[in-house]
Amino acid sequence: MRAALWIALSHYGFHVSAYKDGNCSNSGPYDEKHMGGIIDYERYPIHDLSGDAGRKLVEACRKAWKEEGTVSLEGFVSQDVMEQMAAEVANLPSHQRVDIVMPYTPYKFSAIDPKSFNNYTEGHPRRKIMAQDVYAAASDVIPKDALLRQFYHSQDLLVFLAAVLEIPKVYTFRDVLQSLNVHSMRDGCYRAWHYDMTDFATTLMLQPSLEGGEFEFVPFIREDDPSSETYENADEVAKLFNGTHPNIKTTRQAQ
After folding, report:
1. 209-239: b or e for each residue (b if 16 or more CB lie within 10 Å)?
2. Helices and strands counted in the chain (H then E)
3. Nearest to residue 98, comparing CAs of 128, 131, 75?
4. How far apart are CA 244 and CA 241, in angstroms?
């Protein structure tokens, strides 16, 4: 199975993040001409978005983005490169805070702040505490010459993401820990439902699981207007947590 690239709305999902503003950078010490050996430009001509094939690719991705809230690009990175990427980051030290199963809330801060937590009635989704068991390597331990880092800094990729999202520019993140993370799961591990903290998220799957490996998300669960009293759509989130939401999307990531 080839590596797939997912672009997901920041409602629920996993992420290797890129940013459209804020503490960010648009430069990297990487030679774009080598991206042709990493990204399958024949299938995904993101280096030539002005050409017919490039325009059709962007149009197809925009359609999926607007209708489904996610874009899945199978085979974005070829099999041999994917295996090398995975090997380069396979034995990196994991961040200690996620080495154990931990209480977790999808809103992240409500479980930490008792005032926020106690402002909501019993059964409200903001009081939901989950456990997650996942390992993560921070950006500072990923080798500077790793193929994954070259991929992350690809200007072709950033320009392509901006075109799909219909925003002027996408930047990489300067944060020395969070700019690029590698998440891994061992047998029985799982990631809790959560809102991403960015406007969108991208994930490159390096190694599929033998079994399981289900990527679940619910598109458009929040309303468009953050100032609206019903923006959080708490009733819909509650349905998600009790297993009755009708719009849970699942993408299998197994071999």
Report:
1. eeeeeebebbbebbeeeeeeeeebbeebbeb
2. 6, 11
3. 131
4. 8
- State the pLDDT confidence band at 157, using cuts at 50, 70 and 90: very high
Half-sphere CA count of 11, side-chain side, radius 13 A: 25
Does the global pTM surpass 0.85? no
* 3-class DSSP assignment, residue 119: coil
Q: What angle do CA 121, 123, 124 make, to 5 degrees?
A: 65
Please say whether the beta carbons of 183 and 213 come within 8 A. no
Token pair of 237 as six digits: 């989130």
Region class of 173: left (phi > 0), else alpha (psi between -120 and 50), else beta? beta
Instruction: Give the range among 17-31, 124-138, 142-156 with minimum mean pLDDT.
Output: 17-31
pLDDT digits (tens, 9 = 90+) for 158-196: 999 999 999 999 989 888 888 899 988 888 787 888 877
Asked if 43 contacts 75 with a C-beta cutoff of 8 angstroms, the reply is yes
Give CA–CA dist 201/134, Å, rounded: 18
Q: Please state, in angstroms and rounded to a whole number, the distance separating the CA atoms of residues 171 and 192.
A: 27
Q: Distance between CA 237 and CA 244 in Å, rounded?
A: 10
Residues in the chain: 255
E strands, the chain, in order: 3-9, 24-25, 70-77, 102-104, 130-132, 135-137, 172-173, 182-184, 200-204, 214-217, 249-252
Please give the mean pLDDT across all residues of the chain: 78
Give the whole-angstrom CA distance, residue 68 versus residue 225: 19
